[in-house]
Write a structure and sequence with these properties.
The structure is a homodimer of 180-residue chains.
Chain A: H1 14-20, H2 25-32, H3 35-58, H4 64-76, H5 86-92, H6 99-125, H7 135-155, H8 160-167, H9 175-179
Helix pairs in contact in A: 2-3, 3-6, 6-7, 7-8
The first copy, chain A, binds a DNA duplex (30 and 30 nucleotides) through helix 1 and helix 2.
Chain lengths: 180, 180
DNA sequence: GAATTAACGTACCATGTGGTGATTTAACTG
DNA sequence: CAGTTAAATCACCACATGGTACGTTAATTC
């Protein structure tokens, strides 16, 4: 019922969604208050789902490069969220979102870059991530490139080769052959 | 009068624009037919303006790395189009654009990647662009990274460090210090 | 200056949006 | 089975959007 929200892209109107979901508008309003609450709940739910996947990867026993590769795979070619990353879609249209949703978007972006930073710190400590790139810059770079890949997929482009090339700068020279 | 369109972001409605431009709606329709024709004309005009700048850079007497640096500067920190790149904004919301405008968006993207390809070919011929990255991939990569920088600026982020790091993969190790 | 033509703008239309009050249906309690 | 309460819905509102018919003004021509 309310998981049907995952397929609801940003372009669908509240008016049309509750129609194709078989639920009437006042019910939605009783449950979420207003559209801002609705998008907020949808994004929060989506965040929990995708966060679970990412945390599973980060907590795994993989090697550093393997974790990066898995995250890149998730962003570039995993068919699970084939309708596109809801976070990226909402960030793209964030000025059309309500206040609460905008705050959530910013918070999720911050969490993502923090997660990348932790991964990079771990990689540096174990010596698996060589080079002299600051962790902060690396995390921002990873976040930007993953977001770019998701954006490209939302446009119908194939992000794989570009993402593979972009990740080379982190010193993972095998990333290109691994992904492409 | 019709150059006021450059400041017109995608979020402004036709209804509100002709009001703040002091022109009545029927006049707009007499001139452009429908909203699709309007956005098309606006994007075409913007394309001519920005294309002039890019061509000026490409046709200059600069060294290869200098041209790349100038283009990166144009994308990352030039205040000329401080309201954001209209092409990127329209590409972001391309499914809300009319048919003609969507075709123009695709055509302009193709022209951009062709221009990058020519630049890279020139760089390789003169030996200024080392490495074994195929020209086609390099052009797609440049296009993606420039687009990412413009997207980040549209979101209010500072794209400079990420773009500088991304351009390192092209073998321009000095790009980071030049831009940041 | 009169007549014709071209451009312009007011006022309007149909439609879709987010949001809500009144009413009916359903469930639960005694 | 009767009576109260909770929940879902029908129908509606105000508003904004893209788009247009028609009256009005301005320019042109003789």
């Amino acid at each position: 019922m309310r998981s049907y929200w995952n397929e609801g892209p940003t372009e669908v109107s509240l008016n049309g969604l509750c129609q194709r979901a078989g639920v009437s508008k006042p019910s939605v309003y009783r449950e979420f208050g207003n559209e801002d609450g609705l998008t907020h709940a949808a994004l929060e739910n989506y965040g929990h789902c995708v966060l679970a996947k990412v945390l599973e990867i980060l907590a795994g026993e993989d090697i550093f490069a393997g974790k990066i590769r898995k995250i890149a795979y998730l962003a570039a070619e995993d068919g699970a969220h084939e309708s596109g990353c809801l976070f990226v879609k909402m960030r793209t249209a964030k000025n059309q979102m309500g206040e609460k949703t905008q705050i959530l978007i910013a918070a999720m972006a911050s969490m993502a870059v923090d997660a990348y930073a932790n991964l990079l710190i771990e990689g540096r400590e174990t010596g698996e991530w060589p080079g002299n790139i600051p962790v902060k810059l690396g995390a921002a770079y990873l976040h930007a490139q993953i977001g770019l890949a998701l954006d490209q997929r939302a446009r119908g482009e194939d992000p794989r080769v570009v993402l593979a090339l972009a990740l080379c700068v982190l010193g993972l020279t095998d990333a290109q052959s691994e992904i492409a």
